[in-house]
Amino acid sequence: MSGRVAIVGAAEADEHGKLPHKSAFQLHAEAARNALADAGLRKDAVDAVFSAGLWMGSETAEYLGIRPRYVDGTQIGGCSFIAHVEHAMAAIAAGLCEVALITHGESGASRIGMPGTRFGPDSWRLQFEQPFGLAGPPTGYALAAARHMHEFGTTSEQLAEVAVATRKWAQLNPRALMRDPLTVADVLASRMISWPLHLLDCCLVTDAGGAVVVTSAERARDCPQRPVYVLGTGEASTHVMVSQMPDFARWDAARMAGERAFAMAGVTPADVDVAQVYDAFTIVPIMALEALGFCREGEGGAFVAGQRTAPGGDFPMNTNGGGLSYTHSGMYGMFTLVEAVRQLRGECGLRQVAGARIALCHGLGGMFSAAATLIAGTEVP
Amino acid sequence: MPEYSGPLPLPTPETRPFWEAARRHELSLQRCRTCGAHVFYPRAVCPRCLGADLEWRRVSGRGRLHTFTVVYRGARNFPLPAPYVIAIVELDEGPRMMTNLVGIAPDPAKITIGIPVEVVFEDVSPEVALPRFRPA
């Protein structure tokens, strides 16, 4: 399957941030229109629609006036869009569709026109987690961070290194929302949300959208932009609720997804030139880097120390400024794809990683519940 | 009993025996008669072997603190004042459950992963008692 399809269009919605004047669906639509323009394709060329965070997977197709013959509403959290690329690759390779439009739009901050996702009092979550005061995602991620610190000696300073390095990339991205200088001391001095996570260990909450267009490698060569070939993909799910996480110090789903993606691509972690690793909280990239094999188990904290992932470091990660400083609508995975495409096309200006030929996108779903990994390259192997 | 403002569970058929036992201040789990695994949260099939022959058993209520967080920015309408401790307890019988750690200062420096804990029930409404844990 490696190299059979390519990403030929990638874009964000017209604006992002706090947008109380726009619905979630408008953000999908803006991103879809921009990605199709980038791909040089008309709406009528689209025969497959993928999205997540909806009531029905076909809702965006209706809003956009598309009648797809292939629909995928797979919802495994913020990494869903990376999984959608894998599903699109399989469907295109099987001849079920030709042009896949994958969209994300989320009014994460303003909550305008958001599909309903409330849990009833008889849901597992309301029965076995909420009665104990689970206060949103920071609480759940803190449970993993605390166990990682306990087993491996990971420190709050190491977590803060992730936020600081990511902010340095954001300072090179004019679209990033948080661009003020940041130090490790600033992170440690920010207010504690859910120990061991401080406010600045947590991602932003914004309104944003993004979209990508995927088609066969053959058809990609007729598109105006340089194709970004999908070399390898993987996805996995191990649980949904954080209390069911099989191992609080290890991200099993990421290991499973990464193993398949690297094997399919025929590359190793050492071959990756630039990495976009979902950073909802600073602990997430640390556990991802271990699970994906960039370092050994327990060594993620040491790996990110010394600003290794910052501009000028030897492991450029989250070059758009990440969920920590660029934008985080709630399901951030789409933005790892958009940034990887831009890096591989060489469009990133001040933040461009020179000579980037292989990029890794790695997404997070739920509470370390799911993961999806994609390895993309400028050439077919 | 004063009105409880926090979220209250509404049992489903699979979970009703758990919540009924909790009302009696007993911690009760399912055990799979096919493979012997204890199961939590309650369900109609064993998540280890998919066996459907599950029996309810009162368990020790003892376990160890597996991980925890001290919540400083608490959930809306949650009656414990922040900071409070959310814990994952690994029961002696195997399964892990989310709970609150009580009977200890909510200070991360004073809480150690691995300490032995025991269940203590709090009656929060006429129908519901919540299983929390304290250092044993």
Radius of gyration of chain A: 19 Å
Mean pLDDT of chain B: 96
What would you call the quaternary organization?
Answer: heterodimer
Work out the count of structural domains of chain A.
Answer: 1
Which word captures the global form of chain A? globular
CATH architecture descriptor text of chain A: 3-Layer(aba) Sandwich
Strand content of chain A: 15-25%
Q: Mean pLDDT across all residues of chain A, rounded? A: 97
Structural class of chain A: alpha/beta
Question: CATH topology of the largest domain in chain B, which one?
Answer: OB fold (Dihydrolipoamide Acetyltransferase, E2P)
Per CATH, the class of chain A reads: Alpha Beta
Number of helices of chain A: 13
Largest beta sheet: strand ordering of chain B: 6-5-4-7-8
SSE diagram, text form:
The complex is a heterodimer of chains A (381) and B (136).
Chain A: E1 5-12, H1 24-39, E2 48-51, H2 59-64, E3 70-72, H3 80-93, E4 99-107, H4 124-128, H5 137-152, H6 156-170, H7 184-189, E5 192-195, E6 197-198, E7 207-216, H8 217-220, E8 228-237, H9 252-265, E9 274-277, H10 283-291, H11 300-304, H12 322-326, H13 333-345, E10 358-365, E11 370-377
Parallel strand pairs in A: 2-3, 2-4, 9-10
Antiparallel strand pairs in A: 1-7, 1-8, 4-7, 5-6, 8-11, 10-11
Chain B: H1 16-23, E1 28-32, E2 38-39, E3 54-58, E4 62-71, E5 84-91, E6 96-100, E7 116-123, E8 129-135
Antiparallel strand pairs in B: 1-2, 1-3, 4-5, 4-7, 5-6, 7-8
